[in-house]
Amino acid sequence: MIRIAFALLACLAAELWFCQALAQGTSAGKAEPIEVVAPTADKAIQKRIQEIFDAVGGFEGIGISVQSGVVTLTGEVSKSSIRRDAVSLADRTDGVVLTLDRMTERVEITSQFAPALEKLREMWRAFVVKLPLIGASFIILLLTGFLTKQVGQHSGWIGRIPLSSLGKQLALRAVRFVIIVIGVLVVLELLDATAIVGAVIGAAGLAGLALGFAFKSIVENYLAGVLLSTRNPFEIGDAVEIDGQVGKVARLTSRDTVLVTLDGNHLRIPNAIVMNSVLLNYSRNPKRRFDFSVGVSTEFDLTEAKKIALDVLASNPGILADPKPVAVIDSLGHSSVAMKFFAWLDQTESDLLKTKSEAIRRVKEAFDQAGIEMPEPIYRVHIRDRSEEAPPRSRPESLPKSITIENIEDISVDTSIDDQIEKELKESGENLLSPELEGNG
Predict the structure, then answer these.
(1) Dihedral of the CA atoms 213, 216, 218, 222 (nearest 10)?
(2) pLDDT digits (tens, 9 = 90+) for 251-304
(3) Domain 287-377+400-410 adopts which CATH fold?
(4) Pairing of strands 70-77, 98-105
(5) Domain residue spans in the chain?
(6) What angle do CA 206, 211, 214 make, to 5 degrees?
(7) Which fold has domain 219-283+419-426?
(8) For the whole model, what pTM was predicted?
(9) Do 229 and 164 form a contact (C-beta atoms < 8 A)?
């Protein structure tokens, strides 16, 4: 038992010795204490801050006091920016532990307007210095405007360029634009403000992108107008059919195409629709064909009826001999045969509707004189009395050898719509189809 007690005491002593050694080793591994450097003298800090304030300027009226490295700023300042700058300079001074802001801002109107007045004085002095250059720049701008006006008034030289009306206008505007750009660049160079050009170009690019999305339809119609003027699918006074609308072309603007309908109404079609629609121009070819149908009784000789109708059509002064009129049998009905006639006319000399009307009248009168009936497409019910049966209807023994048509009607060109178009052209307004180049571009 004694031995066991001594062994336990020995183990306990060894454990205590090991713990003590471990504690000593840990304390020995710790970092050495930081040596505290004696702070700069408060008067030296105050002197240094005051020297900085005097060198920078604008910190008059600010009081400085330093105690144990703590700087206290007092006094009144005119703007909050001066207050922030004073605190920032004091914080960065060597030896400052903390900066206390005890300053106040003055709310006097004169102190608030003082910087703005000073800025205006500086701008006025700069204006006086650059006054000769400003005068020269103004003269250059006047000369630029005079040159652009002269180019617009004396634009006969551009008429010799083989371009469309719109192409000539665009070329004239391009020349005037170049003159204006050169004048503005010279003025900016004199005023030493060429850096503004880059900013203006960048802003114009962004603005153009935004406006492009905002005015997509306007830009689309303008480009379509340029293409229409370049491709020249119609001219002023042409009879056209666009998207199911029929009329005569009066004006082509940068946004829409103006038609005068056959009723005398003004019809505006956006250029994008004109560009993307099927366009039928009736006036591009002066020769135009018309047709009409006539029903002839099945009891008469069709060959003789065709000959009579063609002779009458050939005698019509509004119908061309080449190509000559044509007659065909179109269909066979229950009580009549439908004959269709085709004839050509010159639209520059004869009106389509009048000539067609005159042709139908002449054929009808010729058939009447020849005894050729034109029955109605109806069914007839005959009730016969067999006791007193009527004799059968006999055909005429012979057709007249000559057909005489009198009372020739007017088939001249109808200019009522053209007169309205001429009146429309006399009014002020843009017209990309105008044969003459506008003087003002």
Answers:
(1) 110
(2) 888 788 999 998 888 899 999 999 898 899 998 888 999 999 998 888 888 889
(3) Alpha-Beta Plaits (3.30.70)
(4) parallel
(5) 42-109, 131-214, 219-283+419-426, 287-377+400-410
(6) 135
(7) SH3 type barrels. (2.30.30)
(8) 0.49
(9) yes
